[in-house]
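CO-FOLDING WORKSHEET

Operator: S.A.
Ligand of interest: 1,3-dihydroxyacetonephosphate
Run index: 254
Mode: holo prediction, single chain
Checklist:
[x] sequence pasted
[x] SMILES validated
[ ] output reviewed
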Amino acid sequence: MARKFFVGGNWKCNGTTEEVKKIVSTLNEAQVPSQDVVEVVVSPPFVFLPLVKSLLRHDFHVAAQNCWVKKGGAYTGEVSAEMLVNLGIPWVILGHSERRLILNESNEFVGDKVAYALEKGLKVIACVGETLEQRESGSTVDVVAAQTKAIAERVSNWAHVVLAYEPVWAIGTGKVASPAQAQEVHFELRKWLHANTSPEVAATTRIIYGGSVNGANCKELASQPDVDGFLVGGASLKLEFIDIIKSAEIKKSA
Ligand SMILES: O=C(CO)COP(=O)(O)O
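OUTPUT RECEIVED:
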C-alpha cells in the first residue's frame, strides 16, 4: 500500500482571529494536488480550532497541538481528547519537542497520551527527535528509537498514527537537516518499526520530517524514499506552505 504524502502545518502559539482568517482564506484559494495525492492538516492553537474547522476547505483537516493524557476532569488548563472528538477535530499532534523539553513530557507520558487519544478515535501525529547534544554524541538513533518504543509499547494499531521526525536542532533555527540526514533517520525508524511492530506497519506508516522546512528545501527532502511528508512550523503561516503541499507531486512522478 502506497503511503499518501502528508503535510501538516503546526501554527504553534501564533495568530489572532484576523490572522487566522487570512491564512485560512489563502489556503482555501490555493490550487493544490488532490486528496488522493496529499493529505493536508493544519494545527491552530486550541482557541481557534472551531473557527478554522468551520472556515477551512473540506479537503484539508484540522489538528490540535496537544491533549490531556486521560479522561478530562479536574485538570485545570488541560483539554481532553473527548473534547476534541466532541468538536469534530480529527487529528492531534502529540510529543512535540517543545512540550517534551519545555514542559518535561517524558517518553512514557507521550506514549500514554498517544494510546489514549487513539482509543478515543483521534488520529495522531506523534513527534520524535534528538537534541543537538544527542546528535553530536552519536545517540540520534537510540534517542528516536526509545521515543518510538514508548509509543509502540502502548499502541497496537498504527493505522491512525503518523510519525514525525523533528530534530530539535532544526526546529525554528533555519538549520534544516540535509536530505541525506533526514533519509538516514527515517530509514532507521522504519527499520525499527519493521523489527519491533510488524513489516506491514513499517511499510505503511508515514514518517514525516519537520524542522525548518520551507518552499526552497521541500522538494529535495520530499524526493527521499523514506520521507513521506512534512510537519511545518514557521513556513506554515506563510504563502510558501502551498509550495510545500505541492512537493507531494514529486512522489507521484517517482
Ligand atoms: O516544530 C516544527 C513543526 O512541528 C518545525 O518548526 P519550524 O518549521 O518552524 O522549524
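REVIEW:
Residues 179-196 form the longest helix (18 residues).
The two ends are 15 Å apart (CA to CA).
[x] output reviewed
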